[in-house]
Write a structure and sequence with these properties.
The protein has 689 residues and is α+β, with helices and mostly antiparallel strands. It has 22 helices and 22 strands. Bound molecules: coenzyme A.
Length: 689
């Protein structure tokens, strides 16, 4: 069989199994006809829905053939509407005086013939010349220019359902199966043949951009002094050799997965993994734990890397890691109770250099972790992709593993496999100093991390839908209430919302700390307010509606954060003095997200989480399941104001109160029920039967 046959056959087999797995797992739904729905209707409550502030004429879905959709370009919203929304989002979060000062600055920026108009014109031109006008600027701002260490600060982790390994053989068999699953998946990625995703929820039915998936196994984040570089291999069709890097006991090994144009099967891979485990036992050949360097802040690691590459042995080892498909980290047992929290910490940072933290290479996009104690999951470098693509990929792999585990194990491979290769390093005193310093900083970061995994069992997505409310909007309002309960105020909040309806779309921000959410929180908590429960219910509806409106604006490309960032970056590109709008205290504060949130739904019992994005804030990833919501709350111990446990308690109390309120006073839900109205999940419309 030649290269091409292997590729085509594998692709055909993969397509059948992939679709079968994903469909069974509920990860995808088949879609032959795609309904076109106006966002205002898709909330399911067209009668109370306020039409979004601007309609986006671009948001049609031209379609050439199945699985090949030409998506519209990411739009540039109108300047005036962005400025109006900006003022609206900050008004209730700053003092009166500060607001007046900000309003004057904004008015001057947006005046006819002013700076704003000029920058806007340039943005519109940029849109014409780029696939996605915000992409590069957004990527730099969100990730590549962030000098902070990747673990905790940037790289999310995901816990898989715990495995039950009896011994090392079980661990390695699982790992071999995982590699096989990834190689299968990669065949389809290399052929750019993944079935297109379609939006669910508010924009149900719209085809989504798939580029993020194609970066998962082809990218690497190179550290830089001022700025990192995301290197993505564009052409990856059947290179002669392909390899995975296996980390075991802080040593790194090259495991070739295509040898003589033949892809290794599960038995081959198991044999190779066993060899690696044996090789790692050779104490005489042990290298220092070089992976620790990648956990340092980016400029430090960039500096250390410069020293490393002076030596050809190191250059060769770095090259092998930088060009591998992914990392497989075979971890030592964590030796603590296997709670959600302990498993999550294992993925987030590996629990210190004396445990598994050095058994990583944080620059590599995908690192799969398989522990001897059955603790499995992944940690991924965030810049190439959002969590949604990572979750879809992981769930596909878990289905694959489950399915293939039922099948008969094939006989031992007959061919003679070359031994995996240990990566070697030449380290002088300078590198040893860097290693000691990186280990020390990582230890402090770990000790400073306050993570809490809270499973709210009082309600899930099902209950919220029955209230005729959007689950995501309800949860966001609940988080605002929880924050208010803890801190007596609301703060600028980030909710990542996908803009994958557009070419190369990533995310923009839903600013969930709306005026309506503040009114609701005050109504629920301030004793002085002492308002009736039915009034509280009204406030809850108003807050949920406001949240949905902002959501629709955002996912249709009409939100303000990316637009304002674009205007700011354009001023820099034109070498103009930065307009006052962007140096104003309000603007700076409005980009300091003390509450950074994200919906990360899974269909299996895994969950995804990340750290806070500022030293004195919270990161909250939430996973709405049918009958429960998993909240992964993070903050830093050295901040006196925050506490993840306190926030989790507030979440418990707030959501229970909201549930009670709905059960007793949500007459809209009752009316719908009496009128026998059903909400069709497929298109998000309410239909009367
Ligand atoms: N009554 C009853 N059901 C409703 C409803 C209502 N009023 N409004 C929505 N629903 C249903 C939806 O149809 C959907 O049904 P489904 O489960 O069958 O698909 C479900 O409730 C969820 O919809 P909703 O809660 O409105 O949320 P959503 O799925 O549209 O999610 C965002 C909203 C913003 C989270 C989503 O658009 C998004 O952008 N996700 C990506 C986030 C991201 O990037 N995360 C990773 C960051 S690393």
């Amino acid at each position: 069989m030649d290269n091409c046959d292997l590729h085509v056959n594998a692709l055909a087999i993969w397509k059948c199994t992939h679709l079968h797995f994903l469909f069974n797992a509920g990860v995808i739904r088949t879609c032959t006809t795609v309904p076109v729905i106006h966002p205002a209707i898709s909330s399911g409550r067209a009668e109370t829905m306020i039409v979004p502030r601007k309609s986006n004429q671009d948001l049609i879905r031209p379609r050439s053939r199945r699985n090949s959709y030409v998506l519209p370009k990411y739009p540039v919203p109108s300047l005036q509407e962005t400025l109006d929304t900006y003022l609206k989002t900050v008004n209730h979060l700053v003092t009166r005086e500060q607001y007046q000062s900000t309003k004057a600055i904004v008015d001057s920026f947006g005046a006819t013939g002013g700076m704003g108009e000029l920058l806007q014109e340039h943005l519109v031109k940029r849109k014409e010349n780029k696939v996605n006008w915000i992409y590069d600027w957004w990527l730099d701002t969100m990730y590549l220019c962030n000098p902070l260490a990747l673990p905790v600060n940037s790289s999310p982790g995901m816990v898989f359902p715990q495995q039950n390994f009896q011994d090392e053989g079980d661990q390695l068999r699982f790992a071999a199966r995982l590699i096989c699953g990834i190689l299968d998946y990669k065949v389809v990625l290399d052929a750019r043949a993944l079935p297109v995703d379609f939006a669910r929820g508010q924009l149900a039915g719209h085809a989504l951009c798939m580029e993020q998936y194609y970066r998962l196994f082809t990218s690497y984040r190179l550290p830089g002094q001022q700025k990192d570089t995301l290197v993505t291999q564009k052409n990856n069709v059947m290179p002669e050799t392909e390899h995975v890097v296996v980390a075991y006991r802080n040593q790194f090994f090259v495991l070739e997965v295509v040898i003589n144009y033949r892809r290794l099967n599960e038995t081959d891979l198991f044999t190779q993994l066993r060899r690696i485990v044996k090789m790692a036992g050779n104490e005489a050949e042990r290298s220092p734990p070089l992976g620790l360097l990648t956990s340092d802040c980016r400029p430090n690691w960039a500096e250390a890397r410069k020293v490393l590459i002076r030596d050809p042995t190191n250059r060769d080892s770095l090259n092998a890691i930088e060009h591998c498909i992914f990392l497989l980290c075979l971890d030592e047992p964590i030796d603590v109770e296997l709670t959600d929290l302990n498993m999550a910490l294992q993925m987030m940072h590996g629990n210190g250099w004396h445990k598994n933290s050095a058994n990583r290479w944080y620059d590599k996009t995908m690192q799969f972790i398989v522990g001897l104690d059955g603790v499995c999951g992944l940690v991924y470098e965030h810049s190439p992709s959002e969590g949604i693509a990572v979750i879809q990929c992981a769930e596909h792999l878990l289905c694959y593993i489950k399915e293939t585990a039922r099948k008969l194990v094939r006989a031992d491979s007959l061919c003679e496999l070359p031994s995996p290769r240990r990566l070697r390093w030449k380290c002088g005193p300078e590198i040893h100093r860097c290693l000691a310093s990186a280990a020390d900083k990582l230890q402090r970061l770990i000790e400073n991390t306050d993570l809490n995994i809270y499973r709210l069992k009082a309600l899930g997505k099902d209950f919220i839908k029955k209230q005729r409310m959007s689950p995501d909007a309800f949860i966001q309002v609940g988080l605002q209430l929880s924050f208010y309960r803890c801190h007596g105020r609301l703060v600028h909040t980030y909710e990542s919302a996908s803009v994958r309806c557009f070419q190369e779309g990533r995310v923009d921000n839903i600013r969930s700390a709306t005026k309506e959410a503040l009114d609701f929180a005050k109504g629920m908590i301030d004793e002085r307010a002492s308002i009736s429960d039915s009034k509280k219910m009204e406030l809850l509806w108003a807050a949920v509606d406001a949240q949905i409106n902002y959501t629709v604006q955002t996912i249709t490309g009409m939100a303000i954060d990316n637009h304002l960032l674009g205007l700011q970056e354009m001023a820099k590109e034109l070498q103009m003095d930065l307009p006052k709008l962007f140096t104003d205290k309000t603007y700076l504060m409005s980009n300091n997200f003390l509450l950074s949130t994200s919906q990360v739904p899974t269909t299996m019992d895994g969950f995804l989480f990340y750290g806070p994005v500022v030293p004195d804030g919270y990161g909250v990833a939430y996973n709405p399941r049918l009958d429960q919501i998993i909240f992964c709350i993070s903050s830093f111990n050295n901040c006196k104001e925050t506490s993840s446990a306190m926030f989790a308690e507030a979440v418990e109390k707030s959501f229970k109160e909201m549930k009670d309120l709905c059960v007793k006073y949500n007459t809209k839900a009752k009316l719908c029920f009496l009128g026998n109205a059903t909400y069709t999940a497929q298109n998000g419309r309410k239909s009367r039967q």
